Amino acid sequence: MLTEEEKKFVVYWSKERVKKKHSLRKLAIGLPLGLGIILAVVASTLSGWYERAHMVLQANKSLILVVFIAAIGIVIFVSLFTVNHQWDQNEQRYQHFLSKQKKSDAAV
Question: How far apart (Å, rounded) are the C-alpha atoms in residues 85 and 96?
Fold first, then answer.
């Protein structure tokens, strides 16, 4: 037997799962996490605790462009991964509730 919350989720997800899996709004879910990772790396590098990284950046200014491109790649990857992971979790939960509902209907 499903609880009210589980029934609401099944109804909600049965409508949501037919929509497109990716959208720009959904990508915004993982954006803060990706930006947080990048800000931590930049703050760590600029703080000077790892002197060699600071020296390499000072010696070769073109590495800043490479680091910037890598940062954008990391943010995009984390955003896409977060969206896909959340989608998979909801789909797994939905399938679990459906199987639970079928078992309770078969027992009755």
Answer: 16
